[in-house]
Design goal:
- The structure is a single chain.
- By secondary structure, this protein is an all-alpha fold.
- The chain contains 5 helices and no strands.
Length: about 70
């Protein structure tokens, strides 16, 4: 799961907390933390919202492209 490594890294690089992402997705921090750690797979509905919130492409997050754009 390529996104597990990239999700946490890009969030931190942009100076965004887990709480901010959770608020944007309207989910608990415990739930989001499980996505970042790879405990639970990231549902497509959250993938889309996370990419919009972090201003990144889904292809990059999923490891299909090497660049964020």
């Amino acid at each position: 799961m390529e996104y597990v490594e990239r999700l946490s890294a890009v969030r931190k690089a942009k100076g965004i907390t887990q709480r901010q992402v959770c608020d944007a997705l309207n989910i608990t921090q415990q739930q989001y933390s499980k996505y970042e750690r790879g405990v639970n797979e990231l549902p497509i509905r959250y993938l889309i919202e996370i990419c919009r919130f972090l201003d990144i492409s889904a292809d990059w997050l999923l490891g299909l492209k090497d660049h964020e754009y």
